[in-house]
Amino acid sequence: MKIFISWSGPQSMDIGHALRDWLPCVLQYAKPYFTPNDIEKGVRWNAEIVRELEESKIGLLCLTHDNLKAPWLMFEAGAISKLPSSRLCPILFRVDQVQVTGPLSQFQNTQYSKTEIHKLIKNINNEAESYSLSETQLDTSFETWWPQLDKKITEIFETSKATTPPARSQIEIAEETLSIIRSLANRESIHNEEDDNSHWALSWDMIVEHGNNVFEYSKQDENPAQISVLKATISHMRKLFNLITPKLVKKPSYLRRATNGANTLKLLETRILQLDKIKSGDEDTPF
Length: 287
Prior knowledge:
The protein is α/β, with parallel strands linked by helices. Helices cover 59% and strands 8% of the residues.
């Protein structure tokens, strides 16, 4: 049974690698697909990735504090969850459920702990049908191999404490999002185009959420330097909307999504005007 492991960021990549090595030990029929070793680094969402997504029965998302809004995870989550024969299983590594917002909050998340991972492995085993292990075999296998995974995950977090990369800027995230959607726009959708909850819809929602996050962040910082970030965000959002609109314009939810996008753009433009007043020395009108 194929299992697609989705990751974003160095810490999440190390976790994905650990899961790739561990899963076949517990579930001997499992065939994990993990991009760093299974495909040339930096080449994502090509024909091979699409094929692996379509053939995978389970999709595991390695969620950490640093990648909750990562574009790659958003797109792969949308792709996996909308395939009729696949099941998406996000795993929270030192992340609380309340910290998961936006599109990822709609899924049934698994907290990383021995009890919850055991439940997840049982659920995966149930999807294996004729390949599944008996309950006794599964419990024995899990108890045998759990210490190895837990030790590796602990080492990953201990090591990353001293090597935490700097937080990515809103502009960097927006640029990555634009790059992804441009790539997707040149490919056929892996989903049924009649599916109103396609990854295009998920992409639109993610873009709007990103714009709202930039707006909220700008309210916490009265520095006029935020103007450049706000303008860049507006520019990226408009480019992305232009790319996605042809994919969604005939969908029943398009008008609602277009309204949400327009409202977010208006918020950002209003915030720019307020910061312009601060820059010129005028009194700012608080929200």
